[in-house]
Amino acid sequence: MAPTQVSQRNARELLRPEVLASLKNLDLVARSVVEGVLIGLHRSPMFGFSQEFAEYRAYSEGDDPRFIDWNVYARTGRTYIKRFLGDTNSHLMILLDASASMGFGGPPVSKLRYAQFLAASLAFLAARQHDAVGCMVFDEEVRDYREPSTRSGKLQGVLHCLDSATAATGTRFEKPFDKFRETMARRGLVAVISDFYCDIDDLLAGVRPLAWHGQDVVLFQVLDKEELAPSFQSNVLLEDLETGEAVEVEPEYMRERYPERIRQHIDRLAKAAAGIGADHVLVDTSDSLDGALRNYLLFRQRRQ
Amino acid sequence: MMSLLAPLFLLGVAAIALPFWLHRLQTESSDRRPFSSAMLLERAEQRVHVQKKLKYLLLLALRVLLLLLLALAFAQPFLRLPADVVEATDAGTHLVLVDTSASMARVGTFSQARETVRDALDRAPADALLQLATVDRTFRVVGELGNDRSRLLADAASLDPSRARLDYGAGMTAVERFVAALPPPVTLHFVSDFQASGMPVRFADLVPAGVERFVPHVVGTGEPFNWYAEYARDSAAGIQFGINGAGDRERLGDAELYLNGSLIATHGLSQTGPQVLDFARPEYEPGENRVELRIVADDDFAADNRWFHVVDNKPPTPIPLITLDTGGLPMTYLSAALESAAEYRVEPLIAGNFDPRILSRYRWAVVDDIGLLDGGLDAALSDYLSVGGNLLAFAGERAAGLETLPLAGNRRGASGLGLPPGEFLSIGRIESTHPALARSEGWQSVSVSRYLPLLPEAGDRVLIALQNGDPFLIERQVGQGRLLLVAAHLDNRWSDLPARPVFVSFVIEAARYLAGINEIDRTYLAGSSLPLAVAGYTSGQVVDPEGNTLLSLADTTREQQINLDIPGFYEVYTPQGQTVVAANIDPRESDLTRIGQDVLDRWQDATASQPAVTSAAFSMEQERSLELWHWLLLLLAVVVIGESILGNMHLKPRVERA
Fold first, then answer.
1. If contacts are CB pairs under 8 Å, which of residues 183-242 in chain A contact chain B?
2. Cis geometry, peptide bond prior to residue B587 (ω within 30 degrees of 0)
3. How large is the C-alpha radius of gyration of chain B?
4. N or C: less crowded end of chain A, CB within 10 Å?
5. Cβ–Cβ of A104/B42 closer than 8 Å?
6. Cβ within 8 Å, pair B29-A235
């Protein structure tokens, strides 16, 4: 047990945002995160996530020939595909908010950088599950889009798309959801990563059609610690990163009333998401990434 | 056009940088930081910020305005306005001049004068320009030149006689300067009691140039009955008052003598005319005593029935005389001179037989022969001078035997010590502006038959030189003290100076000079000025007979001429101490005898015979100026109130939240 405990602790250390920030390569970040998470989940009865064999299925055209069990073929002369637990060949579409407000936070990492880590980890994890992974980077417009694919080379494209996102301008959820609706062909998972500084009704107007269409939507709300519990000691003039609007606030307000207001906002978002069958995961950028990924896996398992 | 009296104060405008700087600090005091979203921040805070910003700008504007106004107010701006157009008319100007000297306070005289003014104004031609003025010791213009008779009558009703004297010559000279600026032809109505004692020495001084017609209005007619005091003299025997009485009445009156407010003696007045009242020497209190003579008589002019006098009864100040012979002539002459003022007492000190440290008790000392100073005494006196002591030294027989004088260090000159028998030298040059010599007269009569020829050293100031140019009195600054060195002995064998009256005045003035006392005269005439010189950082303060302080705090640091307008005792506080001075009405004002009619006729004729001034020659060149500083101060007060209210409003929310 001792070696396992040590390796679990080491893995968790590796998932700290400040450690991940030192890794320049998003691919490496995603790989480190996923490996760390998987070590933590080793033989976990809770999730049952593993590469354990589940069943054989007759090969049909379009299946990846890598998964043909050649031993069975040698014995029977028939091609069968080996299926594992958790292997559902789902779609994962990652919608990453790259608006200016996502540039807030840190050090060590801004909300956007943390969201990139999260998105990359999700993409890597999904690819490992043989899920098709696509991504869309948006702010007021759709900045970049990669349609879901299971081809191995596509993952690098998705990671590159995520890595090149920079925080700019405002946020509008209509455009990415409209674009996604236009291109979606089959049901799957939709991970929306944003700070969700928007009107919740407007957001729901975009998410609701997806849910009705059978998509499973999870909203990752990424917030910095300074947004959840501001620590201003004196009067401060806060300038909205998206609108440029300046508001003078007092430390008393930021310590006492603001945390209450943002908690209400988070609660409203969570309640609204639950109302349409979507999941809401609050992500604090000061926490390690495994919590967010665990939530994702829990959500994925529940969906199956 | 606006001008500035003190443009240098405009440099104060640079102070507006201060509020800008302060406001820059204030606006930057709120740290500006980026934040993800303002959507959850208090919207009300934003409005407060905007309001604050507006308030800041308004507050800044008010503060800048405040400093601008302050700088402008100090710069004393004024507007040059064109003079009111005064059209010269054929009737010209009627100048009504009212005598406000002390004698006009005679019973019924001034009310008669007011009536006369009214009459003169009524009789003036309808289109004449009118001007009212008063004259006593000074000439004052009352109101402005114009045709508004009701205003002039109101001005005339407010006039009152003063306690000052009027000299008609001086008065007419002032009129002459004034009428040059009036539209001609000028008719001068002079309302006065025309005292004979007010006449000038030269009759020509009565005739003001520029006046075409002189109309005398005599008031206060009738035989006067008036008692008045003319002087007071105190001596060891008693106190003496010179009084005079004019007129003839059955009941005359009494003279009462008051000492420090208490009646101590009475003297009956049985006959009019000049007389001397002798009172036995009262029991004076130590220090200054207020002596007052009151004439109790039902006369026409009550204001001059009191005479105020100050008697200083302080003990004589001891003056040390360093000598070898306490019974010699120097002691005799010096004692006689100093003790004549009853302020000093000579205290002989035998050279070499006293502790030199006792000199520190005295502000100044006398050495009858500088040659008697040996090494120890020389050093002691040198120290005494360097720390602020003062010395009056004479050169005697012992000094004559020395090539270089002790203490002073002056060497003997080449010329001889004595002059041939029967020959003498007079005084050639005197620095009469020197305080020790300013009041002494008669130096020219001094004959010097023997003196010590001295060569002046660097820093020596020769105050008196003999005919041949040799110094006779030298002054030298030694450290903080002064040395006055006389090149002759206090002995009539050297010169006749000790026997001359000038010696007394010289020794008294030298005593005051060396003691550093700026003596103030004790007796003044009402209406005259008391000079207050600045000593140290202050000139002093004066309390008038009614108990009012005459100087503001700021004025006490400036040299002043205090007008003694009312008779009585004035308390004068100077850095040297407290003094009481007395002011009395000039006795010449008490002599109510009028000028003869023939003199008045000549005065009129002399004025009428002057060449006429034509209307064309008249031009009103003087501009009017409107000073704006008081308006600026008013505006400043409003801005200060606005700034205070706005500043308070600005602070209020912070206080509530604190």
1. 195, 197, 224, 227, 234-242
2. no
3. 36
4. N
5. no
6. yes
Structure token digits, residue B128:
């004449």
Contact B134, B189 (CB under 8 A): no
Q: How many CA atoms lie within 13 A of A100 on its CB side?
A: 15
- H or E stretch at B509: helix B501-515
B224 in Cβ contact with B592 (< 8 Å): yes
User: A228 to chain B: which residues are within 8 Å by CB?
Assistant: none
Query: What are the structure tokens assigned to B272, written together?
Result: 């009019």
Strand order in the sheet with B93-99: B139-146, B129-135, B93-99, B186-192, B211-218
pLDDT digits (tens, 9 = 90+) for A206-249: 888 877 777 788 888 999 888 888 877 777 778 888 888 878 77
Residues in chain A: 304
Beta bridge partners of B99: B135
Where b means 16+ CB within 10 Å and e means fewer, B483-508 reads bbbbbbbbbeebbebbebebbbbbbb
Question: What is the C-alpha separation between A156 and A162, in angstroms, rounded?
Answer: 10
State how far the Cα of A110 lies from the Cα of B36, in Å rounded to an integer: 11
Model confidence band, residue B611 (pLDDT cutoffs 50, 70, 90): low
More confident residue, B13 or B453: B453
List, in sequence order, every residue forming a beta bridge with B153; answer none if it has no partner.
none
Min Cα distance B642 → chain A (Å) is 26
DSSP state of B162: -
Distance from CA of B56 to the nearest CA of A (A): 14
For chain A, what is the largest distance between any 2 Cα atoms, rounded to a whole number of angstroms?
Answer: 78
Instruction: Name chain B contacts of A102, Cβ cutoff 8 Å.
Output: 36
Residue of A nearest to B34 (CA): A239
φ and ψ at residue A269, rounded to 5 degrees? -65, -45
What CA dihedral angle connects B633, B637, B640 and B646, to 10 degrees? -140
B165-221 tens-digit pLDDT: 999 999 999 999 898 888 888 899 999 999 988 998 888 888 888 888 889 999 987
Q: Are B120 and B132 in contact (CB under 8 A)?
A: no
Is this structure's pTM higher than 0.80?
no
Residue from B31, B36, B48 to probe the interface with A (highest A Cβ count within 10 Å):
B36
pLDDT tens-place string over residues B552-578: 777 777 777 888 889 999 998 877 678
Residue B239: both structure tokens together: 């106190």
The rounded distance, in Å, linking the Cα atoms of B390 and B362 is 9
d(CA B230, CA B244): 7
Please list every residue in chain B whose beta carbon sits closer than 8 Å to the beta carbon of residue A245. 38, 46
Contacts of B37 in chain A (CB under 8 A): 101, 195, 197, 240-242
CA dist B368 and B319 (Å) reads 13
Q: Which pLDDT tens digit goes with each residue over B221-252? A: 778 888 899 889 887 788 999 998 887 766 57
DSSP, res B513? H
In A128-250, the DSSP E strands lie at 132-138, 142-149, 189-194, 216-223, 236-240, 246-249
What span, in angstroms and rounded, lies between the C-alpha atoms of B302 and B291?
19
User: How far out from the chain centre does Cα A30 lie?
Assistant: 11
Write out the DSSP string of A109-150: --HHHHHHHHHHHHHHHHHHTT-EEEEEEESSSEEEEEEEE-
Look at residue A236 and give its three-state secondary structure. Answer: strand
Closest CB from B35, B43, B52 relative to A239 = B35
A258 vs B29, B40, B52: nearest CB = B40
This model of the complex carries an ipTM of 0.73
Interchain contact B54–A (C-beta under 8 A): no
